[in-house]
Records
---
Amino acid sequence: LLLCTTSALYHIFLIVSENRYTWLNDVALKLWGTLGLGLIFYGIYYWSERKRQRELAAVRNTLGGAPKAITSVKNIAIWLGIAALSIAPYFHDIITERYLGVKEWVPNLGLQEVLSLSDGTIRGFSSYRVLLLTLLINLFAQIMWLGWWTDAKYSIYKPFLLVPLGSSFYELSVIVFVKTDTYLNKPDLKFLMILILGILIGLSYYFKNGELPKRQPSITDVVPQNRTYKNHMK
């Protein structure tokens, strides 16, 4: 996941430092950088897991059982999927060229023709490159928010992750259903929707939290011997 985070932070750096039109934004550099960082992160993970296995060798010899494999087909598939996701913010640079369109080596599958509208735009965007950039950045955000929401599990802030999750899903819907030039894509409407969604989630959380007991039972209330030991210590 650090690979995706690094990719996002690097592109924010390019925008803030006004380096989008310099060699720092070269697609080959970013691809090789992604590959290099991926190998470094994998190496650190593998080394730390090997070290942990060696430290637990004595425990395994006592209790029995073979050590769990560090890598598996499932893990490798997940790592490759995350690595592929990390190139989403600059995938448009891979298959298109600024001001020129789709690169020559990309096979013509007829996607541009299918996505073109009668007004000459590509699903409401000025070019296929801009469509790819906007769509994949929003998809990148949607997957990250969804992953955080799933991983939050019993965290107290989990319900409020539905606000950015719903916002990114709305942005994707506007693109997919070609509503970018309609009122549905106006910032005031989207801000109002986020505000309403946040208030509804906050109210729901407040009233649900009000149903909880005012005082949670302590361990001394549940386990008698602990209470006896505590009285004895007094």
---
Amino acid sequence: MKSFIKRQNLLTNPLFISLFVFVLYLIITINRPMMCDEGMWHYIGRVWIDNDMPPYKFTIENKNPAIFELYAISHYLFGINYMFVRILGVLSIILTMTVILKITTKIHSRTAGIYAMYLYGLTSSWWLMDGQWPSVTENFMCLFTTLSLYCLISSSSKKKSSLYLILSGIFIGIAISFKQIAVFSLFGLIVYYIVNLPKPRSISHVVKSGFLMFTGFFIAIIWFLSPIFFSGVSLKEYLDGAWFILLNNGSYNQPVERLYLSIEVWFGSRFAIYWTIIPLILFQKDMLKKRYFIGLIILLFFDFVGANASGNLYGHQVKQIIPALVIISSVLLARLTIKIDKNVSHFKRNISIIIISIIIVFLPYKNLIINGYFNGFPESEKELGLWIKDNTLKEDKIFVVSLGESGQLLSYSERISASKYFNIIFAKEEKVKSKIFEDLEQQMPKYMIINCGCGKRWIACNERLMENYCYQFKHGYYEVYLLKVE
């Protein structure tokens, strides 16, 4: 009996859960090489710090400034690396779990909060969710979205109500500063707040609350935009590079691909486990009369729309819906635990059984198997980037024709791209493609590094440019061309 109590206490200890998830993330991410997004953000941060070339003006990537600022700090402190932001990403997941525990405990029970911690930490670690890359913007975005929700819920108390509303605005402003799509979460939070206002709902109270929240929101936005504007970026350059670029074909998917990916992700993947919340709701229909529960469903709806907005449905984009989803699921699961058996000792035993079941069902098996199978992941981009560094001068320009991997090559080479559109993913539109070719003809990079697949097809439309280059060698997926000496 004593051993059971110890095991039960351990499984429900938030510190143990946090440590368990932290170690799990280290196992699945510690030996992974720099990925494409990390490379792009690191390159943007590096040239900003080393070459006084701020984002939006000299480098284009469709994100808000917070992630670039994070990588600029990372490069300033540690040089070329990716583990600093990865560790911050893991810590952001742990902190999000803690905030979700507090939210779920406040609205329902500590049991529900413990379930939510496990569900959030484990679901976020799946291969399907790009769990092996904790540095993605969504992990930071979800942290500040959940902090904003916690402050909204806490603002119902008359004590420090105004402070909580301002903090809620600050946190959702930070979330949007990491990723624009958090705007949908902002709308969901506003509706959540209105739905949960005590009756009678005073219009003056709603207006005052909105003013306080948006005051905090603008404080956060100004804070993150200031380094950009102080670096010489104009408002137009920022809006073009962070917002209007979302209308570029490279930022979203076409209708057919949207439909295919939606069916694959929401119905044909491991994510389908969460469809079990539907019978849980049907079994507990009285929950639909509770305002906080209705508010969470509305918030989940807005997050779902946000996650689907681009139509790409990459694993990390799906993470937007996880906070609201696991809170809803955990509340339903906790209520079911009580209904199964109200006997105290049986109740505690059932909690342990459910927690162990959650761990077994939700562990990131694919990531664990892949990490266990590989002794080392291929690092063609790092090897080639270091070779370029050794065979060029600091002032030499290069250009990488590849969908994503340009960031790693540019980061490790410590060289500058001949065009601010260093990633050809945004060159689906002719005006962008023409701008890139114009940049290449004006600056003539010393080396052209071309991906043997997508890069060869893309560069084939400008044979005149390639007449100035001679083939050198092939490394991994890349062919290297050297500018001819006249």
